[in-house]
Amino acid sequence: MLNYVITFFLLAVLAAIFGFGGLAGTFAGIAKLIAVVFIALFVASLLFSAISGRRPPAL
Predict the structure, then answer these.
(1) Whole-angstrom distance, CA of residue 14 vs CA of residue 46
(2) What is the pTM (predicted TM-score) of this model?
(3) For residues 40 and 35, what is the distance between their CA atoms, to the nearest angstrom?
(4) Is 28 exposed, middle or buried (0-12, 13-18, 19+ CB in 10 A)?
(5) Count of CB atoms within 10 A of residue 34's CB?
(6) What is d(CA 3, CA 31) in angstroms, rounded to the nearest whole number?
């Protein structure tokens, strides 16, 4: 999911450089939304592991 955030951020920067203001804003908005979802899921995962006391499996 973090890869999608980086991808849309880079697309927004490229669109801004080439002068596509509306498209850059759209890509930036998508990147922000995905970043917020990523952070929310990360925090939820941390809270769940802290409450349950279970550790993730070792790789």
Answers:
(1) 34
(2) 0.65
(3) 9
(4) middle
(5) 19
(6) 10
Q: What is the mean pLDDT, run by run of 10 residues, along the chain of 59 residues?
A: 80 82 83 88 87 75
Nearest CA to 24 out of 15, 32, 33 is that of 15
Domain ranges of the chain: 2-52
Structure-block tokens of residue 53? 């006391």
How would you class 32 by CB atoms within 10 Å of its CB: exposed for 0-12, middle for 13-18, buried for 19 or more?
middle
The DSSP code sequence of the chain is -HHHHHHHHHHHHHHHHTT-HHHHHHHHHHHHHHHHHHHHHHHHHHHHHHHH-PPPPP-
- 35, 26 contact by CB (below 8 A): no
